[in-house]
User: Fold this.
Amino acid sequence: MKLLAKTSRILLGYAIVVLLVSIPLFYFVIEQLYYQDVDDALRLRKKELTIRTKKLHRERDIALWLAMDNDVKISLSAPPLRDSIYPKLYMDTLAHEMEPYRELATSLQVNHKLYHATIRRSLVESQDLIVGIAEVQGVLLIIMFIGWLLISRSISKKIWQPFDRIIEWLQNYQVDKEQPLINPVSGIVEFDQLNRVVNELVSKNKKAYQDQKNFIENASHEMQTPVAILQSKLDLLIQSKGLTAEQAHHLQSSYEVIERLTHLNQSLLLLSKIENQQFPDLVEVSVKATVTKILKHLEALIDDKPVSLNVEHHGDKMLHGHPVLVEILLSNLITNAVHHTPANGHIYISITDDGFLIENSGTPLPFDDNKLFSRFGKKSTNRHGVGLGLAIAFEISQLYQLKLNYQFKEHIHQFSIRF
Amino acid sequence: MKVLIVEDEPELSASIVSYLLNEKYQCDTAEDFMQAENKIIDFNYDCVIVDIGLPGGNGLDLIRLVKRMKKNEGIIVISANGALSDKIIGLNLGADDYLAKPFHLSELIARLNAIIRRRNFNGAEVFEHNELRVQVEDKLVFVHDKAIVLNKKELDLLLFLITNRRRVISKSAISQHLSQNESGYYRGYDVVYAHMKNLKRKLADAGCRDYIKTIYGVGYKLDCDEAIS
Assistant:
């Protein structure tokens, strides 16, 4: 749920509650106010009656006077009454329905006689008024709320813009690419702070990445010379007269270790160079020609193993890239297949206009599929490989925006590149 | 043949010297830029082996010096930096070859021989041993004066053995030599075994005796002592 939707929803709930409570409350309050007003009027009327009736002396005058005012009734009464005001319904003789009234019951002294008087006042108009006012109030509240919603929505969009920018920037952020930092000024303290923190984090991250990369490069580099010395010493040692089988065996092991070290160094350097995009000279490289070249090199090996090889061309693709990298990509996949195909197994290669596919027979992977393309993700059982070949292939395919996929089914390993 | 080895690592320099001695080569060494500069100016060599990163200067400037002086030395660059761009810069300056560290001494001598051959023999070099005759530059192989057909890799392998004929070459060196100039990241000796098997078979089929000796699984040696005629 979006932040705006969440806050709006909570506020909407609150507004509805307020609206539901406020309309009857409002009605009630206005009603009370009005009643007070009416009651004051009734008391005023009583005072007026008291004053006016003082001038009446005859019973007939009183009757006549009373007949003039429909809202006042007087009757003889024995004990004096305390003033009381109460609501009462009366039948409207014209409309034939009960109508609400406020009534004041009191005692009046006329001609030394105590009368019981009731003075009433219709509430019909007031009720319509109160309902009307409550309605207007309700409508106003609703309009205010909708307005608030729209305004907050449009303001929020503007206010959250820097936030959206940061999110978008972070989504596109890649630690190995050179990118400008985000503009840290948005005018809103919280976002500026976020910007600053993100920038700091990214800078630290970038530095750590850079340091690590430099370390790998330097380490790989600096190792070349000692390895060269070691290898040259072995080249001399192997010349020794009277070399025994055991010594030769130790020598061979040392050669293999040096070779692995060299290969490891080269692979790490190659990986960091690919990541640094140090292969800028892009040309059109034919996939078909490259594959043919690689297969020619591996010919003796394939014949010797023996492995049956089936190559199908249904077209060709000119890849826009560095010829060395394209060759490494394809040769890593092909040598990988040759290496892992058991004797008398088969390899199938297909080249079409939009894809390269290589399949080889074999047993399932002894590790998780998704570790296949990761560096050192798999424990290599092969003494000669260092487990970086597929990682390099993957890195190159990433660089040239090719889709490199792997799947295994029915004892067939399949790698495919979609151009 | 005089060779100047410009390398600041004395151990590596000593190994190269040791490997090149007992050969047709006389070696001289320089450990820093100044020494190298002086020796290049003062003496004449057939080939200079130059490391790029040197105390006191850049090996590339030594190549420039040789070219400026219009001297006829062959130049092999050896560098810890195997980057393609560095290779291109070195070769563009006029170096004859480029070897990235670490390299096998057998590979260095093969490259050295190739340069000397190009400069001095004009392609006339011939290796002869009993029934086997190889015209190195023409890439022709004869057994009992009958030409035999070898593919490129097998020929490469035979020439590599011939170049290093007084020494044992490790499988590892052969593997690297055969896959040079190829970005193929295939490691392992299967390729070596396959080509070696084919080469031996072709020679044997033509009636050549087996001069290629296997040394305890660590390497091979071409077993003959005939000099180049």
Observations:
- Chain B has two domains: 2-121, 126-222.
- The two ends of chain B are 16 Å apart (CA to CA).
- Chain B touches chain A through 48 residues (CB under 8 Å).
